[in-house]
Design brief:
Blueprint (H helix, E strand, L loop, with lengths): L13 E4 L13 H9 L20 E12 L2 E9 L10 E2 L2 E3 L7 H13 L6 E6 L3 E2 L4 E10 L12 E8 H4 L6 E7 L2 E7 L2 E2 L6 E2 L3 H15 L1
Parallel strand pairs: 2-8
Antiparallel strand pairs: 1-10, 2-3, 2-5, 3-4, 3-9, 6-8, 7-8, 10-11, 12-13
């Protein structure tokens, strides 16, 4: 039996959070710390490699740019809210990125091209650091996260067909395990689990519900930096 899609993740009960896990060393949440960690070349097995595929189609290679913007107040993660009319993952919070094209020479090229097409991020403001292991989404995209530093200033120009909004979230917030919530979705014949990392920018109703594949890739980044 194929499990149903989760259409309203806000309504799924929270089973717990991970406040008991060790924090990331703050020195690794800096530009120099990240350069050093990626430069070590240590093997890393991501604890979350996917959450089961619901789409009955061949897998598609894709890449996203995990852009860490160098602000005076610390590194900020560049995220987008996907447009509502998209076929897959409409309205969800995601990294800039998308499907690989034949002309892309590498996953890094895919991530940079997609980031430029979706939000107008110029590649000359991007310093590539490295990759995290690929993550397979429920829609059968095999996504490689490409982690990079992004150097201001830059002016974003959103593609309104794909992106409704671009915003930044502090890296140290997303790397704090107490903000990682575990949800349990039960249905006839089984259950699914997923992570969320809700973030409020200002007013209480101004919440960005980061969940699913984006939250899972952020959790893998947490383990990469902590382990």
């Amino acid at each position: 039996m194929q499990p149903p899609r989760i259409l309203n993740p806000h309504s799924i009960p929270v089973a717990g959070d991970d406040h008991h896990l060790d924090p990331v060393d703050p020195r690794l949440l800096t530009s120099d710390g990240l350069r050093a960690r990626f430069g070590e070349g240590r093997p890393f097995e991501a604890p979350i490699r996917g959450d089961g595929t619901l789409a009955e189609r061949a897998p598609s290679a894709a890449a996203v740019l995990v852009g860490l913007v160098q602000r005076d107040q610390g590194l900020q993660v560049l995220l987008t809210r996907r447009a509502e009319q998209l076929r897959d993952h409409a309205g969800q919070i995601s990294f800039p990125g998308g499907r690989a094209e034949p002309e892309d020479a590498s996953v890094e090229a895919t991530a940079l091209r997609e980031a430029h097409e979706e939000v107008g991020l110029p590649s000359d403001r991007v310093e590539l650091l490295g990759r995290l292991p690929a993550y397979t989404t429920v829609t059968h995209y095999v996504v490689t996260p490409v982690v990079a530093l992004v150097r201001p200033p830059f002016d974003l120009k959103l593609d309104p067909f794909e992106v409704a909004e671009a915003f930044e979230v502090p890296l140290d917030y997303l790397m704090t395990p107490a903000h990682h919530r575990r949800h349990l979705f039960q249905f006839d014949g089984g259950q699914r689990q997923f992570l969320s990392m809700p973030w409020r920018r200002a007013a209480p109703d101004d919440e960005y519900f980061i969940w699913g594949a984006t939250a899972a890739m952020l959790r893998n980044l947490y383990h990469f930096l902590r382990d």
